[in-house]
Design goal:
heterodimer, A: about 170 residues, alpha+beta, Immunoglobulin-like, 5-stranded mixed beta sheet, 4 helices, globular, B: about 140 residues, Phosphorylase Kinase, domain 1, 6-stranded antiparallel beta sheet, 6 strands, about 20% helix, about 25% strand
């Protein structure tokens, strides 16, 4: 797995992104974007898309497009705040740390399976997401690991079936 | 002469309490207030709220003092965790209110952010008219 973190310096590019209604469909070898978003008063926050199916070796880039808040992209893993494992056992966990508006963080996912992730300050509010690389060979959402997370987060995950059928799942 | 000294002492007695109070009209406020964006990783200017200052000892409730882009005080904000508001044994008493005259009040839910991670209510005491809330709007 490869990880990178950068600040979007090209203001024009940032504005262009902010003006679009949904994440761009990437060209070959380009990162797939997941947007971190929130409404004006901060009462609702979310990842968009919330569910994705990708191929092994593809890169995900989380970008914070919420002008009034900080967000993280953090894998469910015991190394991250002692959360239960909800990524493949042979995958490396990641934690972006707080991203300010227009900052981004990238991870390349190689190991096949289901990856669940969350936003540190907003897991309570259900800001979580799920990526399936290739086939869903692991099953992280078992009863034990589900007890570890808030009810709002538990109900926010799209089902494996929905992701496998649709490829991309959006909630807005 | 003694009258002048007495008058000076009397004036000082009147003036000192005011001097001892924190200056909050213009950013940065005096006293123990710190810029929120220097305490936690949050944008320096929050659309809808402005630039926030808080005494860290008062977290999570605050008061948070909110300023517009010209450094003028626009509101005082309290952040009250929802779980505390539904806890019969939890109270928020004697919260400081240094901002002066209140024009109107907004109360709304916030999903959380660095500094006050738990879902909470924002109680916003606006010191400016409704029309001037635009001073802290997104650009």
């Amino acid at each position: 797995m490869t990880v990178s973190r950068r600040h979007i310096l090209q203001i024009g590019g940032g504005l262009a992104l902010a003006g679009l209604a949904q994440p761009l469909r990437p060209l070959a070898d380009e990162p797939i974007e997941i947007w971190m978003q929130g409404n004006a008063d901060g009462s609702h926050v979310w990842f968009d898309p919330v569910g994705l199916r990708i191929k092994s070796g593809q890169t995900i880039r989380w970008i914070n497009l919420d002008p009034g808040n900080s967000h993280t992209a953090t894998a469910y893993h015991p190394q991250n705040f002692e959360h239960a494992l909800r990524i493949p056992k042979n995958a490396t966990p990641w934690n972006s740390d707080y991203l300010l508006p227009n900052e981004s963080f990238s991870v390349t996912l190689d190991a096949e399976g289901i990856y669940d992730f969350f936003c540190v300050p907003h897991e309570h509010a259900g800001m979580v997401g799920r990526i399936i690389v290739g086939r869903p060979v692991n099953s992280p959402a078992d009863e034990a690991s589900s007890l570890d997370i808030s009810e709002a987060a538990r109900f926010a995950f799209p089902s494996v079936e929905e992701i496998m059928n649709r490829g991309i799942v959006r909630r807005i | 002469m003694s009258f002048r000294i007495a008058a000076a002492i009397a004036l000082a007695a009147i003036a000192l309490p005011a001097m001892a109070a924190d200056q909050v009209e213009k950013a940065p406020p005096s006293g123990a207030y710190k810029k929120v964006s220097e305490l936690v990783k949050l944008p320096d200017f929050l659309p809808g709220l402005g630039q926030l200052f808080v005494d860290p000892k008062t977290l999570p409730a605050g008061p948070f003092l909110a300023y517009d882009r010209d450094g003028r005080l626009v509101s005082t904000v309290y952040m009250l965790p929802v779980e505390d508001l539904s806890n019969k044994d939890k109270r928020f008493d004697d919260l400081a209110a240094p901002g002066g005259k209140v024009d109107h009040v907004d109360v709304y839910f916030n999903a959380g952010h660095p500094g006050v991670e738990k879902p909470h209510a924002h109680v916003v005491l606006w010191h400016v008219p409704k029309a001037d809330e635009s001073r802290v709007a997104a650009k």
